[in-house]
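thread: overnight batch results

M.L. [08:02]
morning all. the overnight job finished for the chain we discussed friday. pasting input first so we're all looking at the same thing
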Amino acid sequence: MFLYNRHRVTEILNTAPVIQNLLSVETDENFICPYDKLIIGAGILPQQPFIDLVRPASFHADDDDSFYQNKLIYDLFSVQWSPMNPLAPATSIMLNPWKHRLTPDAVLALVDLVLGNHYDAFIVKSDDKVDCVQFLSSEELSKRLYVAYQKKPPQDYQSLGQTFLYGKRGWQQVKNYDKAEEQGLADTIWTRIERTRRQKDKHTRKTLLQFLFDERADAMKHMIVVDTDKFSGKDKIMRRIKKYGTFQEAFMSLNAVEKRKLKAHEAFKKPIIDLGSTFRTDLDKWMSGSLRLYFTFKSYAVLKASWSGKDTITYRTVRIDPINLNYTGASLEPYVGKEKYRLRQNYLTDVLS
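M.L. [08:03]
and the structure it wrote out:
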């Protein structure tokens, strides 16, 4: 397989106009993004100009455990291509919009840089997140969090009371963990609830644009932060929480009648945090950071309704462009201020010429 020297890759890619413009954009200190990590796949290999650009950084290495013949790691993203398994995506791009403060426009620009366009890209995995700051510690949250589709009690990772794992890593795992501890922040309560969603069925995967424009009514579904303060200390569920340590395991110890009665309680009906609503509020704020995409994002539900849900109408035929609904293929106008990168231009022209 071929790996790419990270220092050399950084030197090379930092000369690309799109990267220079992304790095020059000043983001808000209170940048909000509901996605911790995205894995984006494509049925095509990276565009030849990108491969030619990074080739000087490549070197051969023996690695029998790798699933791809090429693996490149850069600060803003990592990319693998030429899979060993013919059923796997030809190219896999991993990036973290929250960590690197990437707007939706920036996500599309990076995908364009690698693939040449974002219309062939689709979502393989996403990590949905909600942050609780100066509110509940991860241990306190574990005494309230209920994940309906998980049938086993959560695991207290390394028994430190900081990270609680609900379900297996390979599927829709939920993590409740101390983000302040991870970031090395003292005297701060910062708890993150993270749900991993893997799209294993290639026939139902959303394209990248479909994913961005989706208002995500399914986000944090079947996850409730129960308001246990509404229970009496004499209630059975409170005694079970004290015994087992987490609400999830305490709830699982009840019989069917007790579970139904508990779900009808005000503590369930009016949770202390509405995770789905909080996620969608953060999503709206994130999308509003790319105003031209934001218009389509807010109109997408209406567009879908006008199509009557017909599966035959797709992005490949309608060609919804993030800037113009009727895509013409013309170059886009530069962004305002420092944000001058163009989503449809060839980002490598100035480097390779």
